[in-house]
């Protein structure tokens, strides 16, 4: 499965998928939104820890931590009954999505 979350170069693929299968596109977008939320939570938690100075704050360390948090966020997101699942269910029931998914009903 492709991950779109933090990599916006594949955003066009989601737009194309939304035209073919809006339901699947909505599921993917909700999962990736959940992964973005988890990523921000992990970054925020990192700021709350005390730094000992034993490991210097180098650019390489920051890049590695950023990638690590992205991957952890992707692994944690998409679980049943998570935020992405909740968003998917609510957005699928919304009148906007129903109108977009079934344009011939007007």
Give structural notes.
With 106 residues, the protein is an all-alpha fold. It has one domain. Helices cover 69% and strands 0% of the residues. The protein is built from five helices and no strands. α1 packs antiparallel against α2 and α2 packs across α3. The N terminus is likely disordered.
Provide the fold topology.
Elements: H1 11-20, H2 22-48, H3 59-76, H4 83-93, H5 95-101
Helix pairs in contact: 1-2, 2-3, 2-4
Notable traits:
106 residues; disordered N terminus; 5 helices; elongated; 0% strand; mainly alpha
Task: Summarize, please.
The chain is an all-alpha fold and 106 residues long. It has one domain (8-105). The chain has helices at residues 11-20, 22-48, 59-76, 83-93, 95-101.
Can you count the helices? 5
The chain-level mean pLDDT equals 84
- Shape field: elongated
How many β strands by DSSP? Answer: 0
Cα-based radius of gyration, to the nearest Å: 18 Å
* Secondary-structure class: mainly alpha
Helix-strand sequence? HHHHH
Q: List unreliable stretches of 5+ residues.
A: 1-5
Instruction: Kindly estimate the percentage of residues that lie in beta strands according to DSSP.
Output: under 5%
